[in-house]
Design a protein that fits this description.
By secondary structure, the protein is mainly alpha-helical. Keywords: Coiled coil.
Amino acid sequence: MPQRAPPGLHNILPPLPPPQSPETFEDVEYTRAVLSSQDMPGVNDIARTLKDWTEQQMKQMWQQIEQRIERMDQQIERMDQQISGMAQSIYIIGRYVERLEHRVTAMDEQE
């Protein structure tokens, strides 16, 4: 389950200019310049922490997805076995009904 981002990120970065619609190349370059600025100590640490946190969240999400897929595969396998068992039962019942029909037909012919 996703967790909240590490605290304090919003207090460290300087405010960006108001977004323009659509975002211009200059806006993107300004954002890159701010984020890569050497004048702001700790930005790389924050970026690394955020990257690590994001990777951890993605790994957890993928693990959960893989576990769900595994459970679904197991459920499908069980259902397949149940369906196979039901099909065998239906076949056996059908053969029994055929034999009964033959007996009834034979009895009718004897009368």
